[in-house]
What does this fold into?
Amino acid sequence: MVRAWYMDGSAADQRCPHQTDPLQTVGLDQLEHIGVLYWKLDADNYKTDDKLATIRSDRGYSYEDIIEITPEKLPNYEQKIKTFYEEHLHLDEEIRYILAGSGYFDVRDTEDKWIRIEMEKGDMIVLPAGIYHRFTLDEKNYIKAMRLFVGEPVWTPYNRPADEKEARKEYLKTLAA
It folds into this structure.
């Protein structure tokens, strides 16, 4: 099951857990409140997983690719993971299904505090369009993930501030409802 917590304010390496002391955990209900969806799936059988097929059909995810991030496979690795860690939003959902390895998605709560979501093999997450977030690997420096999209893939990040974007305005309306 996914683990999530409020982050400390430490300037330590972004790949560290950054847990508060005492630990302030965040439950799935709190994540759902800010629009983050989560499933635990069978990563060993993702090609034939009926649950994944149902999610894809129900949500209209028609495109997929698989990315592997590790120092050996990603040129300019250290610079790239710093880029992933810049706070941004997208105009569409961001869907990631972890097939191997691990990492963190950080999202902002309704009070603009960072929540760290630990992602491991079998975890699938959907971040809503318009939510400020960032991604980093953990200290193991390896992740293999399926990226899913509705239609053709769009990877355009809009770094904060991007409050003028319609996706951000719509996202904020859902929080107010």
Summary: The chain is about 20% helix and 35% strand. Residues 166-176 form the longest helix (11 residues). The first strand starts at residue 3 and ends at 6. The chain has a mean pLDDT of 97.
